[in-house]
Design goal:
Elements: E1 2-5, H1 20-28, E2 32-36, H2 47-53, E3 56-58, H3 61-67, E4 70-72, E5 90-93, H4 101-109, E6 113-116, H5 131-149, E7 170-174, H6 178-189, E8 193-198, H7 201-210, E9 216-219, H8 222-231, E10 234-237, H9 252-256, E11 263-266, E12 287-290, E13 293-296, H10 306-327
Parallel strand pairs: 1-2, 1-4, 2-3, 4-5, 5-6, 7-8, 7-10, 8-9, 10-11, 11-13
Antiparallel strand pairs: 12-13
Helix pairs in contact: 1-2, 5-6
Active site: 96, 270
Family: Belongs to the AlaDH/PNT family.
Keywords: NAD, Nucleotide-binding, Oxidoreductase
């Protein structure tokens, strides 16, 4: 099979789907790999590294898409890439179709076999290809929130961990999955006062145990969300329903009740967002202010830390990619 690795074209998306090690593995399994020139530059990989691993370097995205049997990407195709889609092509990438009807229809019309990383699910319900980027996004959400809480960046001027004699910031985390757990751990590490909400009391009990009761847990319901959000300096949305649009948990009225200069980071925005006032943003224009609250809703957050993200993503996706390449796809 011919495997294609194009350069990502989404705004400031510096990840690449396959590392030189991944190329070496595809080649070892008897496959040919086409890598667009410069595809790995944002993650610190040179064309020569890919050549040494056995890839053929091609000059354009069109060369990759037109020749490959399977295109391995990081993010969903965007409009300039739609003409490159074709019947019979296997597309292996994040898609987040629950929030993108247009792309869903394009993939159907083009008769593409699209396999979304975020919907690959094991028997125990876990999502092995979504997990690594959820870890990155959850941790990054706290860093981003801390940055925008600085007065020089428009925020309240609150230090997450406070100092001796001064209270720390209040951080509300919606969802106790991988995003929420990593966000809570990071915020706790910085000394914040953290409250995590989830609908699963067993999950809350587990997190309370493994984090040694160092943060607050609450059942997620409308009243508890409203009470916690209005007191929060930083709200992190990390809610996921696999394969479906994220539920809207935080209403416009709740956001309006927050303090001016507070920050919202909606990690679930790639699935439609769990905060009513959230709308997708980009790395080039990451924030906007609504009701006096700073909103950060970048749909490809891990792209900001590509060196970490690319290794984490490729480690998870490569074994499945090899199976697809070795066995092909049977409907």
């Amino acid at each position: 099979m011919i495997i294609g690795v194009p350069k990502e074209v989404k705004d400031k998306e510096n990840r690449v789907s396959t590392t030189p090690h991944g190329v070496r593995e595809y080649v070892r399994h008897g496959h040919q790999v086409l890598v667009e020139s410069g595809a790995g530059a944002g993650s610190g990989f040179t064309d020569d590294e890919y050549r040494t691993a056995g890839a053929t370097i091609v000059e354009s995205a069109e060369d990759v898409w037109s020749q490959a049997d399977m295109v391995v990407k990081v993010k969903e195709p965007i409009e300039p890439e739609y003409p490159l889609l074709r019947p019979g092509l296997i597309l292996y990438t994040y898609l987040h179709l629950a929030a993108d009807e247009t792309l869903t229809r394009v993939l159907m019309e083009k008769e593409v076999t699209a396999i979304a990383y975020e919907t690959v699910q094991l028997a125990d319900g876990s999502l092995p290809l979504l997990a690594p980027m959820s870890e990155v996004a959850g941790r990054l959400a706290v860093q981003v929130g801390a940055f925008y809480l600085m007065r020089s960046n428009g925020g309240r001027g609150v230090l997450l961990g406070g100092v001796a004699g001064v209270l720390p910031a209040n951080v509300a985390v919606l969802g106790g999955g991988i995003v929420g757990t990593n966000a809570a751990q990071m915020a706790l590490g910085l000394g914040a006062n953290v409250t995590l909400l989830d609908i699963n009391v067993d999950r809350l009990r587990y997190l309370d145990h493994v984090l040694h009761g160092r943060f607050h847990t609450l059942m997620s319901n409308q009243q508890n969300i409203a009470d916690v959000v209005c007191e929060a300096d930083l709200v992190i949305g990390g809610v996921l329903i696999p394969g479906a649009r994220a539920p809207r948990l935080v209403t416009r009225e709740m956001v309006a009740a927050m303090r001016p200069g507070a920050v919202v980071v909606d990690v679930s925005i790639d699935q439609g967002g769990c905060i009513e006032t959230a709308r997708p943003t980009t790395h080039s224009d990451p924030v906007y202010v609504e009701h006096g609250v700073i909103h950060y809703c970048v749909t490809n957050m891990p792209g900001a830390v590509p060196r970490t993200s690319t290794f984490a993503l490729s480690n998870a996706t490569l074994p499945y990619g090899l199976k697809l390449a070795d066995l092909g796809f049977v409907e």
